[in-house]
Amino acid sequence: MADLATEPDPGPEPAPAHGELGPPLVELRGVDKHFGALHVLKHIDLTVARGEVVVIIGPSGSGKSTLCRTINRLETIDSGSIVIDGRELPEEGRELARLRAEVGMVFQSFNLFAHRTVLENVTLGPIKAKGVKKSDAVARARELLDRVGVGNQAAKLPAQLSGGQQQRVAIARALAMGPKVMLFDEPTSALDPEMINEVLDVMVGLARDGMTMLVVTHEMGFARRAANRVVFMDAGEIVEQADPETFFTAPRSERARDFLSKILTH
Ligand SMILES: Nc1ncnc2c1ncn2[C@@H]1O[C@H](COP(=O)(O)OP(=O)(O)OP(=O)(O)O)[C@@H](O)[C@H]1O
Ligand SMILES: [Mg+2]
């Protein structure tokens, strides 16, 4: 880890203005993944452009989380390729550590360090994995905590925050690493209803600022407000994809229609 600190940090590239999509940032080609006999990702082809916001939706067990987890190599793949910003996902080692820093991930369960303050949760990664000077990491963390609306909670422990506040800290923590793309896996599904919007608003803000995002969510309001594209998965396959309006109002496949009728009734 320590030698990462000596690598020059090129810094984030300027994001394209909202509405304009850049060149491919994440490219999955022919990705297959099995868990034993179970074929969980079936020849997935998916390209996410720089600045694009893609919502992934689909029934439980369709492979949405697994897809996200392969993109920062929390899961290995059996065949195919994953390229991030022009570089193939490395197997292991220093290159993999560097790539992980470029791919921020926010989970359903906030996964904050319970015995560290909110501020420490956000500064630890940059200090330990990127060799950022503590004072710089603290200044950046304070900026990010302000941006997600929890600047006044910096000295608290995670357990002293509401779920919505904890999830916003988790977003700030991921952003502190300077990711090129952010992956969200059902970031609001563990939250009480009144806290969902405060997290979605932060995500919409990020999208408007040009962050490239891949978001697993069934929040159609978010998809309509922020997504360029909705990708519908079922049984390990991408069944169809379209802009949110088209997908929600005129899904083409029987499987998508069936799924939407179920989520729309409650
Ligand atoms: N580590 C694992 N070992 C074995 N099987 C797994 C593992 N992780 C996931 N699976 C299986 O792979 C399939 C896809 O799981 P995945 O978690 O990607 O689905 P999902 O679309 O995210 O579902 P949900 O909406 O319930 O979160 C499921 O059948 C699941 O049981
Ligand atoms: Mg899942």
From TrEMBL:
<feature type="domain" description="ABC transporter">
    <location>
        <begin position="26"/>
        <end position="260"/>
    </location>
</feature>
<keyword id="KW-1003">Cell membrane</keyword>
<dbReference type="Pfam" id="PF00005">
    <property type="entry name" value="ABC_tran"/>
</dbReference>
<dbReference type="GO" id="GO:0005886">
    <property type="term" value="C:plasma membrane"/>
</dbReference>
<dbReference type="InterPro" id="IPR027417">
    <property type="entry name" value="P-loop_NTPase"/>
</dbReference>
<dbReference type="GO" id="GO:0016887">
    <property type="term" value="F:ATP hydrolysis activity"/>
</dbReference>
<keyword id="KW-0067">ATP-binding</keyword>
<dbReference type="InterPro" id="IPR050086">
    <property type="entry name" value="MetN_ABC_transporter-like"/>
</dbReference>
<dbReference type="InterPro" id="IPR030679">
    <property type="entry name" value="ABC_ATPase_HisP-typ"/>
</dbReference>
<dbReference type="GO" id="GO:0005524">
    <property type="term" value="F:ATP binding"/>
</dbReference>
<keyword id="KW-0472">Membrane</keyword>
<feature type="region of interest" description="Disordered">
    <location>
        <begin position="1"/>
        <end position="23"/>
    </location>
</feature>
<dbReference type="InterPro" id="IPR003593">
    <property type="entry name" value="AAA+_ATPase"/>
</dbReference>
<comment type="similarity">
    <text>Belongs to the ABC transporter superfamily.</text>
</comment>
<dbReference type="InterPro" id="IPR003439">
    <property type="entry name" value="ABC_transporter-like_ATP-bd"/>
</dbReference>
<keyword id="KW-0029">Amino-acid transport</keyword>
<keyword id="KW-0547">Nucleotide-binding</keyword>
<keyword id="KW-0813">Transport</keyword>
<dbReference type="GO" id="GO:0015426">
    <property type="term" value="F:ATPase-coupled polar amino acid-transporter activity"/>
</dbReference>
<dbReference type="InterPro" id="IPR017871">
    <property type="entry name" value="ABC_transporter-like_CS"/>
</dbReference>
<protein>
    <recommendedName>
        <fullName>ABC-type polar-amino-acid transporter</fullName>
        <ecNumber>7.4.2.1</ecNumber>
    </recommendedName>
</protein>
